[in-house]
TrEMBL record:
EC number: 1.1.1.133
Residues annotated as domain RmlD-like substrate binding: 1-277
Pfam families found in the cross-reference section: RmlD_sub_bind
Organism whose genome encodes this protein: Enterobacter cloacae complex sp. Mu1197
Name used for this protein in its record: dTDP-4-dehydrorhamnose reductase
Gene3D superfamilies: NAD(P)-binding Rossmann-like Domain, UDP-galactose 4-epimerase, domain 1
Length: 287
């Protein structure tokens, strides 16, 4: 099995690189080796490597920065997804593409299904949705996995940011009125690997997220509580008070019934959270 992984330095990319079976031939491509916004680069790498499967985790994920870097976000999240889909299809590679809960506006009171209307509040979400459409248009066999609030001990993410602040005894303010389901990156990685191994999941769009719903404030409190030596205080504030550059959905919980019917269990928050916090604590002891 020959696998091309884009976005190899991101937290999901790192999670996949550490878990891909040893008997698979993996090309873990970072953005220097493979810039998915560069059409020629994409075609050259895929035609040369001849992967059986392409896993596209590459994206411009900085939600606030995307608001002031619209063209860059468009090039990576939309056109980049298009190029990867077209090249994968041309050279006969299967494609698994990763997307986001931020394609939704958050006005629902029930978990979003794959059939619900998409309406993003920000540039990041809108460009990711455009990328989804390009993937579906240009690769008949593509599988798209929307996930949410991804965290781990790798890369840059909310858990690591809060952990670092709490470890330094910093008091922090976190929004209480945005609700979602944190998803452990290694669980997404294991899901993708299982999908490739089994080869029975039908092409299309699927939701996959953690099994526990909470606010960012709740999440931060759990992180602070896990670091028993810290004296940090976590203060709840509203989205309006926080005044972020980009608007974010107040509710972006994903309904995962569709993928669960194929036997894939949701990410267990308690297990993933414990593993990632333990890894961060162990790492901090080495410093």
């Amino acid at each position: 099995m020959r696998v091309l992984l884009t976005g190899a330095q991101g937290q999901l990319g790192q999670s996949l690189s550490r878990r891909i079976p040893q008997d698979w031939i993996l090309l873990a491509a970072d953005k220097i080796f493979l810039d998915i916004a560069n059409e020629r680069n994409v075609y050259d790498v895929i035609s040369d490597f001849k992967p059986d499967v392409v896993i596209n985790t590459a994206a411009f994920t900085s939600v606030d920065d995307a608001e002031t870097n619209v063209d860059f976000s468009e090039n990576v999240n939309n056109l980049g997804a298009k190029y990867v889909a077209q090249a994968s299809s041309k050279y006969g590679a299967k494609l698994i593409h990763v997307s986001t809960d931020y394609v939704f506006d958050g006005n629902s009171s029930e978990p979003y299904t794959e059939k619900d209307t998409v309406k993003s509040l920000n540039v990041y979400g809108s460009t990711k949705h455009k990328g989804e459409l390009e993937v579906l248009k240009n690769h008949a066999g593509a599988i798209i996995i929307r996930t949410s609030w991804v965290y781990s001990e790798y890369g840059k993410n909310f858990l690591k940011t809060i952990f670092n602040l709490v470890e330094k005894n910093k008091d922090i303010k976190v929004v209480y009125d945005q609700v979602g389901a944190p998803t452990y990156a290694p669980d997404i990685a294991n899901l993708i690997i299982d999908i490739i191994k089994e080869g029975t999941l039908q092409p299309g769009l699927y939701h996959y997220s953690g099994d526990t719903v909470m606010s960012w404030y709740d999440f931060a409190n759990k992180i602070a509580a896990a670091i028993t030596f810290s004296q940090s205080k976590v203060e709840p504030i509203s989205t309006a008070e926080y005044k972020a550059i980009a608007r974010r959905p107040k509710y972006s919980v994903l309904n995962c019934d569709k993928i669960e019917k194929f036997g894939y269990k949701r990410s267990c928050f308690s297990q993933g959270f414990e593993q990632s916090v333990r890894a961060l604590i162990d790492e901090s002891k080495k410093l």
